[in-house]
Amino acid sequence: MPSHDPTAGLPPEVLAYIREPETRNQQLTQRVEQLEELFRLAQLKRFAPSSEKLKDRVFDEAEQVALADPVKTIRTVSLHCLTRACQP
After folding, report:
1. How far from each other are the two terminal CA atoms of the chain, in whole angstroms?
2. d(CA 73, CA 63)
3. Domain chopping of the chain, boundaries
4. Taking the model in full, what pTM does it have?
5. 44-73: per-residue pLDDT in tens?
């Protein structure tokens, strides 16, 4: 059974008027998604560890790794110096 298009034969102005809310709804949906992403990023920034705390933690972790396996640490540093210009 063929489907009947209820908008068939309507003038273009009427079709545009009918589609206008759909277009606006898509625009608003995209805007909401953008704002949700901005909010999520702001929350991450607000509640992320501060850079000062992060610096301390990085040094502590490096020291812990060096203490845990000093031979591996020496090999890693030596390899680093071989592949890059290390200064004494």
Report:
1. 86
2. 10
3. 11-48, 49-88
4. 0.45
5. 988 887 766 555 555 566 666 667 776 666
